[in-house]
Amino acid sequence: MSGGLLVAGTTSDAGKSVVTAGICRWLVRQGVKVAPFKAQNMSLNSFVTREGAEIGRAQAMQAQACRIEPTALMNPVLLKPGSDRSSQVVLMGKPVGELSARGYHGGRQEALLGTVLECLASLRSSYDAVICEGAGSPAEINLRRTDIVNMGIARNARLPVLVVGDIDRGGVFASFFGTVALLSREDQELVAGFLVNKFRGDVTLLEPGLDMLHGLTGRRTYGVLPFRHGLGIDEEDGMGVPPARGGTPARAKSRVGEESRASLQEAVRESEVTAPAGEDVLRVAVCAIPLMSNFTDVDALAAEPGVVVRFVDRPEELADADLVIIPGTRGTVRALEWLRERGLAKAVVRRAVDGRPVLGICGGFQILGERIEDEVESRHGVVDGLGILPVRVRFAHEKTLARPVGEALGEPVEGYEIHHGVADVVGGEPFLDGCRVGSVWGTHWHGSLESDGFRRAFLREVAAAAGRRFVPAAGTSFAALREEQLDRLGDLIEQHADTDALWRLIESGAPRGLPFLPPGVPA
């Protein structure tokens, strides 16, 4: 096999990331050397590759599905929102500046097309197949002229396009038809067909609609994937909590951290979690701060039997928590202000005074310190932190991107760092790169809780400080659970998609002679 495919979607959150990962895992199990690619990603969930490049976590997860190391080639452009109207632009893994949406789409994006195509060509020269993921919808006709991630990349690289639709939202047939009809003739030629995602019920009831869709568009449906809980791993623009083992997931969506009460209620719904006999359930409350980044840090906790993870935004929701986590954020000072406005800051300080466990990660660690000097991110100058940890933070223009290894609580730990803040620790006990005072811990290290031995040691400390009878399950392997999830994605493709037709599509491109749907838009 030698070829490629672009997985597009009728909307954001249609399932492009997980479908791409599923196709990658199915291919690698067939002996195909495959790599993922997303030209441009907008996400506050990012990862650091071994060469020190920052890319979207979704592409790192897809690389894991391919059983290869992620590299900057797989996500050459990453946009990290700082507000509704501006983002930090990360090019080839390094930040190059802050741009408004108008400034980016007004010219910068077109200039990046050459870099994007070079990265894709490099991957295609090294792998049998490259499975590309689009962004949003390919029918964003107001942005088509500067598009480098959907039809712009498909047309330049002559990639066949598979359009994914989330039927659980409703209106999937109209979305499929409208997506194709809004494209220019040249773009329509590359749209090979459709993939229905998140279907519930009897698929035979859907088949007449698929036949009619084929008659209307001349394009076939390559599969109907059933709804499955717990598969939204490493998402881009949402808050996601995986289920406790054997449970059902609690989920919520939010756009660049502007949480609504309704969406938070979705996250607060707990799965039924049963602790081992004679032991307590351990409850973890994660403060849903604005511009929350790398909330995937809590996935490993949520995967532990007997641990419940909730996202919260009111002080009373901390009352029954055994551990409170302040996660990373793209806006440390803004998040600190939000905690104070909500009354959460006082509740966290009271916990610390009472000796109840608190963990700050990256921006959350900075918030727990004494002072923040920020002339880079918020430009607010010197701001008082919560004063719980003996740490003073100064924001540097250069971003720290690293993959540290170390030891804490007698266990080996690996993590990754993505931050502008430089911490000067002036007291407390050492804890990774940060410190500990009593039952309050702080570190810049993301991903540290994925280290199984360290996570169990940390939970034992939390349980002791919280007065809980809780012993972490010795056999829980987060890496193994992640592999199981990726295999489930591969199983979905293998069992519910026409893999022979997919194989031909990846190898040979879009079928010739696909009909044109008027009216279309000019190229």
TrEMBL record:
**A molecular function GO annotation:** ABC-type vitamin B12 transporter activity
Please name the gene that encodes this protein: cobQ
The record's family statement is: Belongs to the CobB/CobQ family. CobQ subfamily.
What is the documented function of this protein?
Catalyzes amidations at positions B, D, E, and G on adenosylcobyrinic A,C-diamide. NH(2) groups are provided by glutamine, and one molecule of ATP is hydrogenolyzed for each amidation.
Q: Where would I find the CobQ/CobB/MinD/ParA nucleotide binding domain in this sequence?
A: 6-239
- Disordered: region residues: 236-258
Q: Which GO terms describe its biological process?
A: cobalamin biosynthetic process
**Pathway in which the depicted protein is active:** Cofactor biosynthesis; adenosylcobalamin biosynthesis
Q: What's the name of the protein?
A: Cobyric acid synthase
The record, for PANTHER family, names: COBYRIC ACID SYNTHASE, DETHIOBIOTIN SYNTHETASE
Determine the domain of life of the protein's source. Bacteria
